[in-house]
Task: structure prediction
Amino acid sequence: MSDSTPRIGVLCDRLRVEEKLIIERLRERGIDHEVIDVRRAGFELWRRGAPRCDVYLARCVSHSKAQAALHILESLGAVCVNRTGVSDVCGDKMRTTLALERAGVPTPRTEIALSEEAALEAIERIGYPAVLKPATGSWGRLLSLVRDRDAAEAIIEHKATLGSHHHSIFYIQEYIDKPGRDIRSFVVGDRVICAVARRAAHWVTNTARGAVTENIPASEGIETLSLAAARAVGGGVLAIDLFETPDGLLLVNEVNDNMEFRNCIAPTGVDIPGEIVEFVVGVGFGGGAVVDGRRGMAEDSHTTAPLPAPVVVGDVSW
Result:
């Protein structure tokens, strides 16, 4: 490891455009780094000693592989971005919702059910249409828009029959009638570096399913709510997905700890991979765990302070 600049380890299992851009920015800045394919790495749990890198950036497509690598590295004393605790929370929609609710961050009304009967009752309480989601997953996969009781019974039966972890926990959320878009903001440390609107004719507004991105200003409402959501899950490098309600309020839908950003660089004009690299290098210089965008706080630190009153900026508020 260098005395002048930290050595960065990039954990990956497949090099997407995002990882290639991050590696390119590391090279451009002359930062010592190592690209680690976790599929080929052997983690010697018995070996103690200083980590090979000053800080590890988790960029695995597979959440389970990323979790395993982060848990191992942190147990051996390594500094990671994002931390294991952040990855654990963001990789589970139920835990994310619990963290947001605990911090007082507004979210769509959500219920969890652990049986078919309880799931149907929860959907009836929330009302139609309702949304069923897997507890884990990304790219808008395995989402169901439930418009009536017949559809609810059929989808619940299908999920119960499939029987995997994805389908054994029923995550049920109220449907938000968005204005043809959702908002994604990018938080790096204690800053919102940019925001985009993702527009689609389909009710799932995800670029992996064809949504088109456009730059929008990070208004005071977007910035304040995004930072509150980031603090709620532990901070770091995050993407916050926001919904606008018909009456102009903002709700946090999800928090992503390993976001894709290739489609957001051109519309915003922001060098997102460069911002990530600068943050990770800063963590490498300072050392310690990253929580709420800072270092040196306890592993289980979460904000519990009351949030400011709702603010209205333009046509959105929270």
Remarks:
- Residues 128 and 147 are 5 Å apart (CA to CA).
- The chain is about 35% helix and 25% strand.
- The radius of gyration is 20 Å.
- The chain has three domains: 8-90, 109-174, 181-317.
